[in-house]
Amino acid sequence: EARASASIPLGNVEELDIEKGGSPLSASDILTALGAPNELARNATGILIGLHAGNHTQPFMLVSVAAYDRAFQAMLAWEGTIGDSLGSFFAPQEGGVHAPGLAFTDRVQGNLDIRESQPEWHILYAFPQQGLLLITTDSTTMTEILTRLSLGKNTAE
After folding, report:
1. Contact 28, 37 (CB under 8 A)
2. How far apart are CA 134 and CA 59, in angstroms?
3. 148: Cβ–Cβ under 8 A, 6 or more apart, which residues?
4. Which of 69, 107, 137, 147: CA 20 to 30 A from 21?
5. Nearest to 9 by CA among 50, 52, 49
6. Are 155 and 139 in contact (CB under 8 A)?
7. Which of 33, 43, 13 is nearest to 143 (CA)?
8. C-alpha span between 127 and 79 (Å, rounded)
9. What is the model's pLDDT at position 51?
10. Using CA atoms, how far apart are residues 54 and 83, in angstroms rounded to an integer?
11. Start-to-end CA span in the chain (Å)
12. How many angstroms separate the CA atoms of 75 and 38, rounded?
C-alpha cells in the first residue's frame, strides 16, 4: 500500500517505518516476516526500507549485516524465492504479485558486483561494502542510494 500510495517528488527518497502494534520491528523480525533465510535474518544488525521516486516509485532495502560471507551465501540461497518473499512491494508496476522463477546473473556497475534477475521481474542486490546489503528493483535507484551513502563516487555509474 505504501508503494502504491506514495507521493514522493521525483528524485527523492522516503524511509518507511515498519511497525507491529505500534512498536518498530527489528531487522531480524522484518527479514523473517519477508521469508528471508534464517542466516540472513540472524546476521542483520539494522534495516532501512524505503522508496525512491525515479521512472516509477522503486522500493529498496538496506540491510546492515554482521557477517558478509554468511549474508552473501544466504542471498544466493534466497534467489529462488526472493520474488515471492518480497511480494507486491517489489513486484513490477505493471505486473502481478506472483513472481516467476527468477534466474540471477552477475554484472558489474562501476566497480560494484551486482546480482540481478531478469528484466520482467527485476531484482538487484549488491554488497557495496562488507557489512551492507542493498536490494532494489532498478539500476537508477541503486545508483541514487549508493550516491546518498557517499559510496557512489567509486562504485556507481
Report:
1. no
2. 11
3. 13
4. 137
5. 52
6. no
7. 13
8. 15
9. 86
10. 21
11. 31
12. 11
Single-letter amino acid code for the residue at 55:
N
Render pLDDT for 37-91 as a digit per residue (tens, 0 to 9): 999 999 999 999 888 877 777 889 999 999 999 999 999 999 988 888 887 778 7
Grid coordinates given for 129: 561494502
Summarised one tens digit per residue, pLDDT across range 102-119 is 889 999 988 889 999 987
Tell me the sheet residues that pair with 15.
50
Which residue in this structure is represented by grid cell 502504491?
A: 4
Cross-strand pairs, 57: 53
Task: Give the span between the Cα atoms of 101 and 79, in whole angstroms.
Answer: 9
The single-letter code of the amino acid at 64 is S
- For 28, the grid coordinates are 531480524
DSSP symbol at 1: -
Burial of 130 (0-12, 13-18, 19+ CB in 10 A): exposed
